[in-house]
Design a protein that fits this description.
Blueprint (H helix, E strand, L loop, with lengths): L9 E5 L5 E6 L20 E2 L6 E2 L4 E3 L4 E2 L23 E2 L7 E2 L10
Antiparallel strand pairs: 1-2, 3-4, 4-5, 5-6, 7-8
Organism: Serratia marcescens
Protein name: Cell wall-associated polypeptide CWBP200
InterPro entries: Rhs_assc_core, T6SS_VgrG/RHS
């Protein structure tokens, strides 16, 4: 995450299925109190502070196990595994929690 001038304010390091492994907060050592917090997580998900889950608009994702917590609302149209995130989290994304789509390339950012 950058500020209006393009300076890095926050960056996160994730494991393959989206569990936050570490974060870098610019200027954190100079601040008093809590570090800079932001709710955006892996592949456009939002961090739910109460549950620790990631919100995808249609369902919640559990980064500890790499699966959704509820069945896919579109049923078997999303695949045989109703709790799966995507086939390959390195090249696929599922920003809504409904159906995965393949990224154009490794640097692609899903935009909708």
């Amino acid at each position: 995450m950058t500020d209006a001038a393009g300076n890095l304010c926050w960056s996160g390091q994730y494991d393959t299925f989206g569990k936050l492994q570490g974060q870098t907060v610019a200027g954190a050592a100079k601040r008093q109190g809590a570090q800079y917090q932001q709710p955006l997580r892996y592949a456009g998900q939002y961090q739910d502070d109460e549950s620790g889950l990631h919100y995808n608009l249609f369902r919640y994702y559990e980064p500890e196990v790499g699966r959704f917590t509820t069945q896919d609302p579109i049923g078997l149209e999303g695949g045989l595994n109703l709790y799966a995130y995507v086939m390959n989290p390195l090249t696929w994304v599922d920003p809504l929690g409904l159906a995965g789509c393949q990224s154009v390339n490794a640097k692609h950012i899903f935009s909708w």
